[in-house]
Design a protein that fits this description.
By secondary structure, the protein is mainly α. 71% of the residues lie in helices and 0% in strands. It contains four helices and no strands. Helix 1 runs antiparallel to helix 2. It is flat, with a radius of gyration of 21 Å.
């Protein structure tokens, strides 16, 4: 049954989805910033190509993961807390300034 479902999945979209994850993994491998996510993109490609019969295992990362996520939230240069608190006012300001003509105040 798994073989039949996997073949149907592959024919009706798994090939495209998996190929795009492979492409995304290659693009991520080119950049320094994306390099840590490259193996994850290739694992997702495997799940996209042949999903039935595989098992996802949730791992407990513990308190270290929670602390590092909190540290990232505060210290991230282009994200973190600034992203959550400034995103809507900045978008509103950009939209309102773009709608004005260059010579008006």
């Amino acid at each position: 049954m798994r073989l039949l479902l996997n073949v149907l999945w592959f024919v009706f979209g798994g090939f495209i989805s998996g190929s795009l994850w492979i492409l995304a993994g290659c693009v991520l491998a080119i950049t320094i910033v994306g390099l840590p996510w490259t193996p994850a993109a290739f694992r997702l490609a495997g799940f996209s190509y042949w999903p039935f019969g595989r098992m996802l295992i949730d791992r407990d990362d513990g308190m270290g993961s929670c602390l590092l996520n909190g540290l990232w939230l505060v210290l991230a240069p282009d994200g973190g807390w600034r992203c959550t608190t400034w995103s809507w006012p900045c978008r509103w300001r950009s939209a309102s300034s773009a709608s004005r003509s260059p010579g008006s105040t």
